[in-house]
Amino acid sequence: MTQCLPETIRNSETLEDLLSTPSVGAVAALRRIRGDIILLGAGGKMGPSLARMARRAADSADDFWARRRVIAVSRFSEVGLEKSLRAHGIETIACDLLDPDAVERLPDAPNVIFMTGMKFGATGNEARTWAMNAWLPGVVCARYRVSRIVAFSTGNVYGLCPVESGGSREDDALRPEGEYAMSCLGRERIFEHFSRKWGIYTALIRLNYACEMRYGVLVDLAGKIWREEPIPLAMGYFNVIWQGDANAAVLQALEYAAAPPFVINVTGSELLCVREVCEKFAEIMGKRVRFVGEESPDALISDARLAHKLFRPPCVNADMLIRWVADWVMRGGKTWDKPTHFEVRDGRF
After folding, report:
1. Vertex 229: Cα angle to 225 and 230 (nearest 5)
2. Which helix (H) or strand (E) element contains residue 173?
3. Closest by alpha carbon to 250, among 229, 240, 265, 238?
4. 288 Cβ partners below 8 Å, 6+ apart?
5. Three-class SS of residue 161?
6. 336 closest CA partner among 243, 212, 215
7. Residue among 164, 181, 304, 160 nearest 240 (CA)
8. Tens-place pLDDT, residues 284-302
9. Model confidence band, residue 123 (pLDDT cutoffs 50, 70, 90)
10. Is residue 41 part of a domain?
């Protein structure tokens, strides 16, 4: 589907519609990849909009007599989320994915999107972090060994990368810093092991950072400027991708799943400078911006040229995202108060 992008996003309904509008590539991928889709850990920040996009893309791809199931699995701690998903034609199953018996009872599906994971609160809760990020993938592989799996990972597995390099590439050495990033590498290794052992077609999505109006690096920075808080510069550079573009990339990655796993970075086209982005926000908002410290020569950044080649470049660029976020924050739009902590350099989340 071709999106007509607005100058501003006026409300949550418009936002949700934009986030879940499938790209032409996503619809085309689901025409070629048949069968039901199950999303594990679909109650997080990206899960609901990705489930809705999967439903809409499937409806566009399928003929009337072959309508497939889209199933969202989560603990569903957010009040009203299950009802909302069902209203959009998505089946829901409340499940504690750390219970292997509960995972075994989940329905068969030839297409699995693995979204579950733990990042914030990892420091001080390392055991649960490893259980979620590195043990659970083995449980899921055992349950869905005859399915294709697209699994979320993170650019944190690369570690800090020299800014002058333009970002880490898929074949770079992995140097995770901190227990969170190490457990995410553990997740990748477990998926790789079972992909090789059982021939599970798998794709690993190294994402950083998805953004919409209610959370993301840009929302963090815009909020600080609006509240006239100082901006730390030590992590002076970052990548960002509109969440709708990230959703579309995940659905398209189903086509590229392979054994051993296909690995791909998913992020925006631009390498963004914190200082420059904040100066743009300050200009739009009529605020003064205060910086603390200086930029380091390295950052957690990724080169996503492969994704842009395979899936096409993102339809929403950084400039549009900045203008959308600034307008949203200035109007007092709802945010989720879930900071990304992108400025953390020691891996302690």
Report:
1. 100
2. none
3. 265
4. 228, 282
5. strand
6. 215
7. 304
8. 999 999 999 999 999 999 9
9. confident
10. yes
Whole-structure pTM value: 0.96
Report which of 311, 204, 232, 235 is spatially closest to residue 268, judged by C-alpha positions.
311
Q: Is residue 309 part of a domain?
A: yes
Please choose, from the candidates 239, 170, 238, the residue with its C-alpha nearest in 3D space to the C-alpha of residue 204: 170
pLDDT surpassing 60 at residue 69 = yes
Output the pLDDT for position 70.
Answer: 98
* Cis peptide bond upstream of 209, omega within 30: yes
- For residue 44, give the amino acid letter: G
Domain count, the chain: 1
Give the domain CATH number at 133.
3.40.50.720
As given in the structure block, the two tokens for residue 62 are 């399928």
Domain that holds residue 55: 12-210+241-269+303-314
Sequence-distant (6+) residues with CB within 8 A of 17 are none
**Full DSSP string of 286-318:** T----EES---SEES-B--HHHHHHH-S-SS-H
Asked if residue 136 belongs to a domain, the reply is yes
Query: For residue 36, is it within any domain?
Result: yes
